[in-house]
Specification:
By secondary structure, this protein is an all-alpha fold. It has one domain. It is flat, with a radius of gyration of 18 Å.
Length: 112
């Protein structure tokens, strides 16, 4: 359980031990991972990793159900949410604007 009472989510990324013989060859890969981690935006309330994991669960479920590949998954899901908004009382553009505002608040960035 996390501090907010939610169930703890499994990690999105797994670190595989590197055999000693290949550590030198893997060094650039390790530095790339570090560079990626350092490029993440600020996490104002310490919840962004968890938020990303929730989104990953939804995206994985979408891919499992539709069979869409990794390259197109996010765009296809967003497009299908637009189709849903056509048929349900949702305003997709308003929801997207609100999502951008939430993201800005959660990362301490300027609102969109």
């Amino acid at each position: 359980m996390t501090l907010n009472g939610a169930a703890e989510m499994p990690p999105l990324f797994f670190i595989t031990p590197i055999p000693s013989a290949s550590r030198e060859a893997a060094a650039p890969r390790a530095s790339e991972v570090w560079r990626f981690a350092m490029s993440l935006p600020p996490d104002i309330d310490g919840m962004n990793k968890e938020r990303a994991q929730w989104a990953k669960v939804a995206l994985d479920a979408f891919q499992l159900h539709t069979g869409v590949d990794d390259e197109d998954a996010l765009a296809d899901l967003l497009g299908d949410l637009m189709h849903l908004s056509d048929r349900e009382p949702f305003d997709f553009e308003a929801a997207l604007d609100r999502a951008r505002d939430h993201y800005a608040a959660e990362t301490g960035s300027a609102p969109y």
